[in-house]
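Retro notes - structure team

What went well: the batch runner handled both jobs without manual restarts.
What didn't: labels got mixed up in the shared folder, which is why I'm recording both outputs here explicitly, each with its sequence directly above its tokens.

Job 1
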Amino acid sequence: MHWQQMRPISMHLHCSKMTRRRRSNHLFLVCGGVASYKILLKAIAAKEYEAIASKVDRRRVLWKIAALSVDPRPAPAGQLTEREDQHRIHVAQHRVIYQIDERQKRVTVFRMSTVNAKDPPGSRPLQGLTHSDIATRFEHALANADGMVGAHCIHELWMRGEMSINIERALERLWARAAESVPEWLPMRYIEWLPAVYEVALKFRSVERGRSNIYLVLLDYQDRDEHGVYVGMSRYSPAQRFDQHKAGIRAAGSVLKRGLEVLTGPTLHLQYIKRSEASRIEEELARALASAGLLVKGGH
């Protein structure tokens, strides 16, 4: 489908209509509602959008992008590296990476990607490598803009108890060089107790398949100089449910006010499970994390 041939779409967000026109190497999205920012979509991002197989997902991605013209920093958006103008949002397994130009009141979407975590972080595929081997592999990943390999390198060092400053620097470098291919399970910031969460969560299993998902949300308790975690279950994907919390839809107060990001990795193996099993695991996982010394909310 060519963008020039697409008709205006009714929006169920702040924007009521959208039209599209090409200019140079950008694709302009013009919102018919009350908008403060112009949306520009680079040609490569347009191609990546058109490559999304699901029509429903394409429409949802378009809605999310349109909403940026009104609010370019929605609550679920994450800032990449140390650049205040560079952000990402998630729509299911799709990631949209964009920059904000406050002076020009412009949002430029420069990449989209579909994250496919074939090797879950809990499997620790680099566990057998030495520290030196991991460092070398990480540098190669940066050179090749390979976010998946780079993420596994950081994750393995993280699980081994690497110093926080080294993890933070590695995260910054990886987001700067390979943001479009970094898997969703890699957190955007250093969390001291992440290895403990993996250790606890991986003890839980469900053999029966279903439509329920276990998810974790990182909570900001700066007033207590620590992070907390929210444990929940939903028939929606973790990213979708997080968006709902931040939008006030059946929201837990702790996530609405303090939610930072979804911690996808520790519960990747607890997706699409039977509801009764999910309900049990949600409660037991919350208790186990609390017993491990974490500040825990939810779990009911």
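Job 2
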Amino acid sequence: MRAQREIPIQREWKSHGPRESTGTRVARLSCSLHIPTCHWPPLPHAPHSDSFAAPPVVTDMSSPSVEDLRAILAAYKRVVDATWPDLHPTMRERSRRWATASAQELATELAALLKESSAGGSASRVFWKIAPRFEFGGANRHFATDAGFADPAELVGLTDSDPRLPWRPQAAKYRADDEAVVTSKTAQLGIIERQKGPTGEITWVRVAKVPIVHANGDAVGVLGVYEPLDPDIARKLAVQQLKRSPT
């Protein structure tokens, strides 16, 4: 049975011969769909721009290496451990192999985790972006559906400012958050915010973002996970978040 396509690690990955590339390997795996939504009045339109200042440390991830893949997986594990420990119950055990795994093995592992995150009753949206432009480098199928795309691969290379994305009015805010995570190398956990969907509905979400960091300490991107929230619960959490914010 032919497997469906899953997200490649980056748009420029190509196969250059009969041997299957790690990007193609990831692209052949799939995720299922399960999208709970809720409604809320429209968000104010925020200005957007594609001319943001780049973080001081960047790297070329157009051809992902073992180090790139290992850094993405490590960021994924960090956000799961901190916020969604039940999302991948076997991740801790599986992660012990990452230090010695090949690029092909790491790409397969990442694709399997993305598939798990969109299976069954999971409502988690997973994505990552590559600095300095914060282009999407990968996502699970839940996230692609929120973005209005049937195939996660269609997101690769886009930024939040792309006119096809429903949350484009919030692109400036998302970009500022991403840059703060990368430049400070500090995670942002438990963010409560609203997000516009492809049909115009507004959904409350709980978001966590962590930096993607190479072994030498360079932060090269951001990985995020979010889940929709019940509106009543979200409002209460949003008030608590506002009270904790510095004045």
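One thing worth noting from job 2: The two ends are 57 Å apart (CA to CA).
We'll revisit the folder naming next retro.
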